[in-house]
Write a structure and sequence with these properties.
single chain; coiled coil; Phage shock protein A, PspA; PspA_VIPP1; 259 residues
């Protein structure tokens, strides 16, 4: 194999590969339908020309046939008048027109067959174009769906699934930590509230006892645990007793403050 043959084959192979890669199904189908419609236009023009030629041939055939009949009648007329020479001339004219009419008749039959075949081809091409349009629309829809699915798959492939799932796991862990902190804060707030109420409850007992003591002191009643004595005139003993009470009251206040 020569060098030029090999080079030609390589060039043709590369060109075919480039053409195959450049072919867009939607555009190729659209162009194919356009080409078929152009063929349809040309075929219609051919049918129209053939029909026109058929009409002209038919007219010429009818004219020649009419002339042949006319000269035949003239030949009969001349013969009936006894003019044989004139009748012979009329028959000669009739023969010329009859031969022309016979040729035109054969031509007309061929043209009629051609026109009928062209009409059948025209109907077949119109049917094929209609079918091609339907198929083109279907194939274009499938091509668009395939491209959309391919783009979707590429998009999904570009998404880092592992990193995305890792992000979800990290965010879930953060949410769990936030929930735990919120629960802990709630528990701490609840325990502090309970402590405050317990302090208030214990403080109320002391206040009640303090009020009772004040009432006993102001009313001159005996303190719990002490014996009842007759009232004595105010003297040094009374003063010392009041000082002891104040001291005890002060001691109680200090105890309350230390709570």
């Amino acid at each position: 194999m020569g060098l030029f043959d090999r080079l030609s084959r390589v060039v043709r192979a590369n060109l075919n590969d480039l053409v195959s890669k450049a072919e867009d199904p939607e555009k190729v189908l659209e162009q194919a339908v356009i080409d078929m419609q152009e063929d349809l236009v040309q075929l219609r023009q051919a049918v129209a020309r053939s029909i026109a030629e058929q009409k002209r041939s038919e007219q010429q055939y009818n004219q020649n046939q009419t002339e042949a009949n006319k000269w035949e009648q003239r030949a009969k007329l001349a013969l009936s008048k006894g003019d044989e020479a004139l009748a012979r001339e009329a028959l000669t004219r009739k023969k010329s027109f009859s031969e022309t009419a016979a040729v035109l008749k054969q031509q007309l039959e061929q043209q009629s067959a051609t026109v009928d075949q062209l009409k059948r081809n025209l109907v077949a091409l119109e049917s094929k174009i209609s079918e091609a349009k339907t198929k083109k629309n279907m194939l274009q829809a499938r091509s668009k769906a395939a491209k959309a699915n391919e783009d979707l798959q590429k998009t999904l492939g570009n998404i880092g699934t592992s990193s995305a799932m890792g992000a979800f796991e990290r965010m879930e862990q953060k949410v769990l930590e936030a929930e735990a902190r919120s629960q802990a804060v709630g528990e701490l707030a609840g325990s502090g509230l309970e402590d405050q109420f317990r302090m208030l409850e214990s403080g109320s007992d002391v206040d009640d006892e303090l009020a009772l003591l004040k009432a006993q002191v102001q009313g001159g009643g005996a303190l719990p645990g002490s014996t009842t004595t007759n009232a004595l005139p105010e003297s040094k003993s009374t003063t010392s007793s009041n000082s002891a009470v104040d001291a005890e009251l002060e001691d109680l206040r200090r105890q309350i403050d230390n709570l």
